[in-house]
Amino acid sequence: MSEASPVTPSWATLDPTWDSQATQWVVKENATAETFTPTAGSPDASDWLVNPWDVVLCTSGALIACENGLVVLVIWQNPALRAPMFLLIGSLALADLLAGLGLVLHFFFAYLLRSDSAQLLTVGLVVASFSASIFSLLAITIDRYLSLYYALTYNSERTLTFTYTMLVLLWGVSLCLGLLPVTGVNCLAVESTCSVVRPLTKNNVAVLSVSFLLLFGLMLQLYVQICKIVLHHAHQIALQHHFLAATPHYVTTRKGVSTLALILGTFAACWMPFTVYSLVADYTYPPLYTYATLVPATYNSIINPLIYAFRNQEIQRALWLACCGCIPASVAQRARTPSDV
C-alpha cells in the first residue's frame, strides 16, 4: 500500500491486490438517474466503495446504542435504582452505549473524513468502550459472588464503597487502553506492525487478547463458585422443608444454574473467536476473517441488556412505568427466584 493511497475506510487492512482482483460497485451519475455499475480495477473505485461488513458493523452499533441507551436512561431517571447491582448494570450499559456510538462514528468518519486523526479517535473510543464492557461484566460477576457469599452483610456502606472503587478502576484502565492508539501506539507509520484490526499494532492486540483470556478464566472460576453456593443453599432449604427433587424450588434452582451457564457461554461464544484469531493472525490475513470474528463480538453488547437489565424485575417495573404509566400484575407480583442470580 503506497503512502499516497487514501485512508482505508475499514477495520481491517485491505489486501494489496483488492483493486485488481475484486469486482467493485461505483456510482455513476448521468442526466436522468443514478445507476450502480460493476467495474474491475478502476482507479477511482476505492473512493466510492462501501464495504458491506462496515455497514453491518454500523448497523450493529446503532442497535447497540439504542438498546443500551434505554437502559442508561431508565437507571439514570429512577432514584430507586442506586444499589450496587444497578450501578454495575448501568456501567455495563454505558460502556456498550459508547461502543455502539464508536462503531457508528467510525463508519461515518472513515468514509466521509478519511482522516488518520478521526480514525484513531474512533478506534480508541471503541477499544475503551469494549474494554469497559468486559470489565463491567467481571465486576457484575464479582458483585453476584459477594452478594451470595456475604449475604448477611452485603447491603452495607462498605459494599457501596467497594462498588465505586471497582467502577473507578475499570473505567480508568479502559480509558488508558483506549488512549494507546491516540498517543502513538498504532501502525499508521509502519504498516508491517499492524494487527488484524487497523490501526492497532500486533503487540497491542496481543495484550488485549491475553487480558481477555485471563478475565474469562477469572469469571469462569467465580461462576463455578456461585453455582456451588446456589446449589448448597437450595439443598439446605430442601432439607428444612422436606422438598423433593421435583418441587418448583428445585426446578428454579436448576434454572438458575442453567442461566449462569448461558451467560458465560454467550460471552465466550461472542468474544472467543475474535480473541483467538487476533492472537494467531496478522495484517496479511484476508480481511474477511477479521470481520467474520469481529461482528459476533459486537453482538455481545446487543445481548447484554437482555441478560442483565431487561430480565431484572426492578428495571422491568421502571420500564413499564416509563412507557405506559402502569405495572402489569404479572410483573408486580413476580417473586425473585434462584434463576435470577
Automatic annotation (TrEMBL):
Q: Which SUPFAM superfamilies match?
A: Family A G protein-coupled receptor-like (SSF81321)
**Source organism of this protein record:** Aldrovandia affinis
Q: Where, per UniProt, does this protein localize? A: Cell membrane
Short name of one Pfam family: 7tm_1
What are the residue boundaries of the G-protein coupled receptors family 1 profile domain, all occurrences included?
Answer: 67-308
Matching PROSITE patterns = G_PROTEIN_RECEP_F1_1 (PS00237), G_PROTEIN_RECEP_F1_2 (PS50262)
Residue ranges spanning the membrane: these are 53-76, 88-112, 118-140, 161-185, 205-224, 257-276, 288-310
Q: What's in the keyword line of the UniProt record?
A: Cell membrane, G-protein coupled receptor, Glycoprotein, Lipoprotein, Membrane, Palmitate, Phosphoprotein, Receptor, Transducer, Transmembrane, Transmembrane helix
The name this protein carries in UniProt is G-protein coupled receptors family 1 profile domain-containing protein
PANTHER family (alphabetical): G-PROTEIN COUPLED RECEPTOR
Kindly list the GO CC terms recorded for this protein. plasma membrane
InterPro entries referenced in this protein's UniProt entry, alphabetically: GPCR_Rhodpsn, GPCR_Rhodpsn_7TM, GPR12, GPR_3/6/12_orphan
Question: Where is the secretion signal located?
Answer: none
Homology family: Belongs to the G-protein coupled receptor 1 family.
GO terms for molecular function, please?
Answer: G protein-coupled receptor activity
**Which domain of life, per UniProt?**
Eukaryota
As for membrane topology, the entry says: Multi-pass membrane protein
